[in-house]
Amino acid sequence: RRPLLKKSRTISVTDSTTPHFPGPLFPTVRRLSDDSLPPSSTATWPPRRSFDSSDSSTTSNSDSFSSQTFAFSDRDYVYPSFLGPNTTRNRLTVVKPSANKSLRKQPPVPSPVRTGSLRSKSIVSAEGSDVESVRKSSPVLELGSRSDRVVKPVPVQNPVTSLTSSSSLISSAPVRRTNRIRSSLMINLMVVLCLVIGCYAVVLRNEVTKLQVDSLRKGKSEVIESNHILVLGWSDKLGSLLKQLAIANKSIGGGVVVVLAERDKEEMEMDIAKLEFSFMGTSVICRSGSPLILADLKKVSVSKAKAIIVLAADENADQSDARALRVVLSLTGVKEGLRGHVVVEMSDLDNEPLVKLVGGELIETVVAHDVIGRLMIQCALQPGLAQIWEDILGFENAEFYIKRWPQLDGMRFEDVLISFPDAIPCGVKVASEGGKININPHDEYILKAGDEILVIAEDDDTYSPSPLPEVRRGIFPKKVDPPKFPEKILFCGWRRDIDDMIMVLEAFLAPGSELWMFNEVLEKERERKLVDGGLDISGLVNIKLVHRVGNAVIKKHLETLPLETFDSILILADESVEDSIVHSDSRSLATLLLIRDIQSKRLPSKDTSSTPRTVSSFSHSSWIREMQQASNKSIIISEILDSRTRNLVSVTKISDYVLSNELVSMALAMVAEDKQINRVLEELFAEEGNEMCIKPAEFYVYDQEEVCFYEIMIRGRERNEIVIGYRLATAERAIINPVDKDKLVKWSSDDVFVVIAFGE
């Protein structure tokens, strides 16, 4: 805090004869130069002017000194010795009031002296006006001109305090200004530094955010999920697979499906957004990466997934299966282990054992070509079976479920069959046999502790057992299946696993049947490929191979075939164009249209009054006859890879068709939801064991008989069959797992029933 200037009073001289020189006790001694001293040594020291408020008048004694001058340059200040030596100042620096705010803030000193500007003002003598002129910063009075200037003692403040304070204030002003400038510079520097650091932090944050957004956009961020379904790879089956998974999770409000593929994330999301169906609450997360890299697998939480689906690549079958094998090896190398099972889509049946050997019990395989080939043969022999398989494999209608019901322990399977109003039991998972699934067991089988029931139901939470209903057991017609007749079948195109299809036909067809093979592969090359595939041509008993070479999309080549004589025609996706879905479907569709055109010219009208051909044991059914005559008395099955071609095929009025990719996707989704269902599908697709069949109504009811569906199920057990649905003659589609099974229905002999029966 700056010191305040204090007023002081000058001690007057009492003895006029002796000049008074203040001693060390006085703050200062003011002396005159030699030329300004009075002539007499006895001259008295002029009294000092007192600035005390008590002095009302100013004492002026200028008789002997009126002619003397006293200038600032003649003034000297003598300080006490303890302050050290001090030199005489030649000029006093005057500080303006505006230069130092502290000077202006000092309390005013009461004085008769009128303060004015810094320039000198004249002081009139006692005879004239009593006007004085003083400098604001100095207590010295200036009288007369510069040559006749006399210094009179004036009362001043404490010289040491005032002058020290004044000099310190005057001398410290530049220091304070420098300090203020320095402080201002430091503050400005700190502000600038803070701004720079803040801007840099904002830039870094934006860069980090940009990297995070870019990483998320490119699909490189980690997926923090659990109990989700992980799909590895990208193929044309992904759309229908996502649809089935969304339908399966609808009952729980939707699930999470993560897709990891070697594609850009934005491209995958755009392709998924083009799918024309609702996900019904299911979230689909896409990530870009390779399933062969463990870091990418960890990025999608592979160890926490409840099921992993490995899709086959759209390339050569052997290359696709080799890649699937490497993916399985990568999955087995996950240190955290796998919580769920792995469903691998294979392209060639011969490569299936190697993948199972590497993966062990966690691996479930679905061989797409083998499944489609078997379905095509079953649909060719039993028209309308494709629609039934679509309903059972898809999650939109009824599907297979396995669950344990302890309250049913000790009951016979015959009673269990009618214990579910909203489901149809089809088999038992026997705990005592290591979890083996026994489809269509005997009526006398008694359920034991740990056994589970295989049913066909709408959903896993829509059915439960109830008390046994009262069912009337009436008399029904007991007919046996008629013997099989030889058939004539045509294969258009060459499939990679055509040898497996021939073996299935050998098991299904009656002796004396013919299989015509029409494709561009030379006959000798065909035999070599069939033998390499494991087919023993000389060991075929039921069928005879007939080879024809030609292009199935050239009409002249097709006209050389007796197309009107074939019971069934299977248009296969040719091996030469199987890598291109569009090209393959275009070729199949062109072949289909050409065959229909040739048949329509050779058979211009449908002869419904003639005796129907003995194509199968149920040829007398009106529905089957309609299906056979829809394409001029020949059942045409076309292998379609793209589901979008379905509308084009329906316009051609084919008797039946197969959407291979969609059916395979349904099978993959069903096995992903429950790995045990794969055992059921394997048995139903196999040429031996239980199979899906279509039987005429005359095997179970009389014409116009009115019975409930429960009684139809009991009558089916008399034939060792499980009736799972029906199709009325006036309906367009079959009904699987009908509701109101205790409701009476009037049946017609033209109706058909869908059953699970043991194949002969």
TrEMBL record:
Compositional bias annotation for Low complexity: 53-66
Keywords attached to this entry: Ion channel, Ion transport, Membrane, Nucleus, Transmembrane, Transmembrane helix, Transport
GO CC aspect terms: nuclear membrane
A biological-process GO annotation: monoatomic ion transmembrane transport
Membrane topology: Multi-pass membrane protein
Location of region: Disordered: 1-66, 97-122
Location of the RCK N-terminal domain: 226-367, 486-641
Record carries keyword Transport: yes
InterPro entries registered for this protein in UniProt: CASTOR/POLLUX/SYM8-like, CASTOR/POLLUX/SYM8_dom, NAD(P)-bd_dom_sf, RCK_N
Main location: nucleus
Transmembrane parts of this sequence: 185-203
Keyword Nucleus: yes
Subcellular location: Nucleus membrane
Polar residues composition bias: residue spans: 10-19
Family per similarity comment: Belongs to the castor/pollux (TC 1.A.1.23) family.
Protein name from the UniProt record: RCK N-terminal domain-containing protein
